[in-house]
Amino acid sequence: MVGESHYENAFRALLDKNKPPWGDYWAEMDDLPAAIVADPDNPHDSSAVAVWVQEELVGFLPREAAALYHPALADLAERGEHLRVGARVLVHLDDGAVSGSATVTLPPPEGVQSYNEPPDEPHQVMPHGSAMQVTCEEQHMDVLGAYVSDRERHVAVTLHAIDVQKTPRSSPYRAVEVRLDGQRVGELTKGMSEKMLDVVDFISGKGRLPLCRAVLKGSPLRAELTLQVAKAHEVKSRWLDGIESA
């Protein structure tokens, strides 16, 4: 990001809100909620993109990055929406003067908006995480075939806890089923499901559908679906506390 030096008061406010422990030189605040917002009225750049962390303006995307992201973010703004991601904030205190920096991780510009609409039911967007492969997609090409294209397509999928028994003699177990627009398109392996079930159950217990980003690639003959979502042990307490019951 750029321009952080102009927002000393914002970084002071973030210190007051979060009261992080201090290291030798810096106070670090990780995974704070950040809003990435198109700023077409900016007098310096009509393609500017502002970054707000916990409702504090802390800076802007660099000009070249802003030019890439502004169109998709402007479309979101017309719908009264914005891109929300996690931010890492570092603050330095020197003789009473505060300086800070913020870093955000963004999806690619074409992934700012999902190809499909989110569900009408109450839902909760899950934190971003490392890639997680969905299995059994080949059994659901009747659904996935309508979504694939020549390029990667970013879609919103929901996660659901189900009971699975592979054979009549095998022991049943709980797994995570993946649905695209309400239709089953695969599931996670037993091992991966175990890493996700706690957070899926927690969100479902709040009366909300667990919603996460996924990347779809392939052809109408065969496709691969990869989730980009944090595992249960990676989810922060702050995020869990912010989920309201539907």
From TrEMBL:
- Domain of life, source organism: Bacteria
Protein name as annotated: HIRAN domain-containing protein
Organism expressing this protein natively: Knoellia flava TL1
